[in-house]
Specification:
With about 400 residues, the chain is of the alpha/beta class. It is about 30% helix and about 30% strand. It has two domains: about 220 residues, Alpha-Beta Barrel (TIM Barrel); about 140 residues, Lyase, Ornithine Decarboxylase, Chain A, domain 1, CATH 2.40.37. It contains twelve helices and 22 strands. Strands 1, 2, 11, 12, 15, 16, 17, 18, 19, 20, 21 and 22 form a twelve-stranded mixed sheet that branches. Strands 3-4-5-6-7-8-9-10 form an eight-stranded parallel beta barrel, surrounded by six helices. It has a two-stranded antiparallel sheet with strand order 13-14. α1 packs across α3 and α6 runs parallel beside α7. The longest helix has 19 residues. It is elongated. Bound molecules: ligand PMH. Ligand PMH binds next to α9 and β10.
Amino acid sequence: MTATSFYRETWADIDLDAVANNVRNMKTRIPEDVALLAVVKANGYGHGALQVARTALDNGASWLAVALFDEALALRKQGIEAPILVLSPIPPQHVNHAAKYHIALTVSDGEWVKRARENYTAEQSVSLHISCDTGMGRIGIRNKDEASTLVSEIRRDPRFVIEGMFTHFATADQDDEAYFNEQYGRFEMMVDWIQELGARPAVIHCGNSATTLKYPAERRHLFNMVRYGIAMYGLSPSPEMVKQLPFVLKRAMSLHSRLTYVKQVEKGSFIGYGATYQAPDDEWIGTVPIGYADGWLRGFHDTDVLIDGQRCPIVGRICMDQFMCRLPHAYPEGTEVTLIGKNGAEEITADERAQQLQTINYEVTCTIHPRVPRVYWKNGKKIATSNPILTAADET
Ligand code: PMH
């Protein structure tokens, strides 16, 4: 158990009401018999896997997915009973753990099944989802031979259950739909191959956030489950998609800190490593306790933060645990600094941060390090805090 208190005043607020809203909105837009799977890998895209998982399940999701077996196990051990799918291949010797904890695995090749069989000592069955590479080029079967080898290897042990099959789209968030349609066509063909082998599974899924937002009622793109990731956290899958969102996405993460040190420097003073900033005038400088080791990357050096509803420029290089910014005048130590989110009438979104780093919003939220405590809000009230640096025992 991680601690609930923290001693450095830097934290990420996670608005679980926003997640709940994004899940309910999506659930009401997809056909009733299409299941909603909440993707909570990478600690829920940085938002906190357990809290997001619980919120999603309470609001219409019935499945969860993660990338690592470790992430699945952590959820199980924390009391999550819903089906969990691990989306990446895991070493075959861990099949026993998967069987024991009812964690569904992704399979891509017959060789994996063979090796898993050799290691399989558990009595329980294990659910498998066949990954199909329709053009993402990451994992999955690519042709009919691979499909039939895989299915026949699986059939050699009745404890293997083919529960699902899926693919992942490489370009669903882009305006040009040609490659998406090509991938979709290949997936339909692969579903037919598996059906011809008499192994059509109960759960067939291919839609990510972008697919599901674009075609919320178009069954052919959804089969009977969709995998909801980035939009569940309130972020658009791509800048192109912002104009075609079927409902307002509510952003769940904001990032905050407080000034720990405020001083007036004389004209000509240097600030930070490399002495890259020289004050052009006498000016007020504030120090903020978050740095690149927190995922507040050095690439943010020429951007602003929000203090008292105003944009204040970061000056000098970002250090490992702190950075400095220019203040319009003196502010008391302890004044709130917003790095992502609203402060007064101003807002800096994860999308703006992504643009500043020439990356995507996914990377911005995932990169906020676990040493930044997450503070969870539900029904407008703080319900939990997680600080994995300290254990619960350290608090007593
Ligand atoms: N399914 C799979 C297999 C995924 O890898 C992802 C996201 C999702 C669903 C959810 O997609 P969404 O967040 O766009 O809704 N995976 C990744 C990735 O590997 N890199 O960026 C996103």
